[in-house]
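Good morning N.,

You mentioned wanting to compare the apo and holo forms, so I went ahead and generated the holo version with magnesium ion. This is what I fed in:
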Amino acid sequence: MPVTVVVGAQWGDEGKAKVIDLLAADHAYVVRYQGGHNAGHTVVVDDQRYALQLVPSGVLYPHVVPVIGNGVVVDLPTLFQEIDTLQSRGIDCSRLRVSDRAHLIFPWHQALDALHEASRGDERIGTTLKGIGPAYADKARRDGIRAGEVRSGSGDAEHGSGGMESFAAEVRRQGEIHNREITALGGTALDVDEIVERFTALGWRVAPMVVDTVELLHDALDRGESILLEGAQATFLDLDHGTYPYVTSSNPTAGGACVGSGIGPRHLDRIVGITKAYCTRVGGGPFPTEALDEWGDKLVEIGHEYGTVTGRRRRTGWLDLVMLRKAVRLNSLTELALTKLDVLDTFPEILVCTEYDAEGRPVYERLPGWQTDISAARTVDDLPANARALVTLVAAEVRVPVTIVGTGPARDAVVAWT
Ligand code: GDP
Ligand code: IMO
Ligand code: MG
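and this is what came out, ligand included:
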């Protein structure tokens, strides 16, 4: 099992981190391949809750090498805040490696994210305001600054002249260019001197972690080691395949895992899609099965559906199997993990959308609830028949096996479906 991909099958926050943490027990490397600190990945182990934004979710295991891949956009202040918090809680982050090709986020990206959102008025995307879109836009227009540029020394053909001096000069140049863009949009110019000073210090700190992660990962594959590719965001937030323009600016789908890690598709042999037993979305955009009634409120309340990054209330609704079938195709999913089944414990009836009608409205199958606490269930036999029926329906409709069922936030709160 050399390479496993974990990808969100809905609109994010499906419980990817919990499943990644679980699977990381059997992997040597855990690699983030896209997105940035717009992600909020929660892992719960022994009553300890870890909220990760940039550090890969495998970091809690001493045997795992966590890697920030080339497809990620890295906010250095957040990265070090996260590392410091983890270290203060006894988690060793010294193994963390950052790709020399990963692009850096700067304060002007955040300023532009806010200005672009403000200019959209009612058509706001509802971004996390972390500067993700503007950072990827700079990457695409070949104006980005990559992590490799902090490496000191005389440099080489691939990395230009290299060294902290040229990094600082490039930060200054880009800061001045972006200040012109910010003021043209009605914003306040940023203090470029302060940014150059602060990011040079951060540059020195990140430099020892920056490596050619593509080489690192391929050498690991050559040694027969296994790699877990950690998706952030999700299939329907994908820049190409999501509900554009209400999407993020990267490719969370499994193809993006190859691009964002430098591992070719031939190596991928297990592609795990993560879906909640219901559906949530944070930010604007279409949501066919949204429940704007008391059941939607109940999902928010019982499922604690508030964003880890922005604290925003998530929109909630019923499981949409039309979307899931599409997610299977878009990602070549080999299996599904169905999380947060326990959130439905008190529901007398559970709706599942199996198709859309001619007008595109969801058509629901209504399943009787189980009205039993399943949080202690660890085997299929521990689950009530009505809960098993929901899992069986999902697998049959989507035509890939459900292999993991989540029954609570903790690492061990799972049923391995056989
Ligand atoms: P991610 O972005 O996909 O990694 O998901 P988040 O961490 O943003 O949100 C998922 C939330 O659900 C977190 O608070 C998890 O601790 C929690 N969670 C994950 N799996 C389960 C589950 O099976 N049951 C319950 N009740 N909570 C879960
Ligand atoms: P994880 O990895 C849920 C959403 C934002 C917004 C849109 C674009 O925790 O599942 P961006 O800041 O990326 O430009 O915002 O994408 N979004 C997420 N929603 N989970 C996430 O990450 C998200 N990351 C971005 O709310 O609608
Ligand atoms: Mg999340």
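The CA atoms of residues 374 and 382 lie 8 Å apart.

Happy to go through it together on a call whenever suits you.

Best,
F.
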